[in-house]
Amino acid sequence: MKKQELRKLYLQKRLELPPEAYQQLNEKLLSQFRKLNLNHIKCIHFFLPMREKVEPDTWLMINWIKQNHPLIRLTYPKADFATNRMRHFLDDNALEIANNSFGIPEPVAGTEINPAEIDLLLVPLLAFDQLGYRVGYGKGFYDRFMSECKPGTLFTGLSFFDPVDAIDDINSFDIPLHQCITPKKTWAFTGNL
């Protein structure tokens, strides 16, 4: 299938999730996330979930990291729709978060951080394939962001659903994931490391 078809299909699948199923899937994602080896991770970038798009609840993971790995720094994105780029803000005392005009929760004040400081990047997606390519919302924010990260940054997707066989219209701007966490397992794409 092509990206546009997958985008529509998987957004609809998420929107149709009953609240109880959504909660259970998030708990299973957290359980899989807790299995990640974080020994050499000093900084994790989390996207903040858009409730109206029924995105995975990253707040569960954020809170778990804060409780269990308090020395790991956390960062969150702020989208600039004029440039289709993102800025990244540290979770510290200066951080303030509010919904932007598109309903996306993001920092409105705080300490900006360089993408080169990020060791683990959690990437939002609607669908992914068996090679680690993903379908996002179509603006290319995360592909641009991933290209700015240092070599060795671990690109990790979060999905309620298993991968599709293939995304038919992958192009040279698409950057594959290294792994994708689903409720049942973490898919590793070792060829992308």
TrEMBL record:
Keyword Cell membrane: no
Key words, A-Z: ATP-binding, Magnesium, Metal-binding, Nucleotide-binding
EC code(s) of this entry: 6.3.3.2
Binding of ATP, residues: K3, Q4, E5, L6, R7, R134, V135, G136, Y137, G138, K139, G140, F141, Y142
Molecular function terms, GO-annotated: 5-formyltetrahydrofolate cyclo-ligase activity; ATP binding; metal ion binding
Record keyword Ubl conjugation present: no
A Pfam family: 5-FTHF_cyc-lig
Biological process per Gene Ontology, one example term: folic acid-containing compound biosynthetic process
PANTHER family documented for this protein: 5-FORMYLTETRAHYDROFOLATE CYCLO-LIGASE (PTHR23407:SF1), ATPASE INHIBITOR/5-FORMYLTETRAHYDROFOLATE CYCLO-LIGASE (PTHR23407)
Name of the protein in question: 5-formyltetrahydrofolate cyclo-ligase
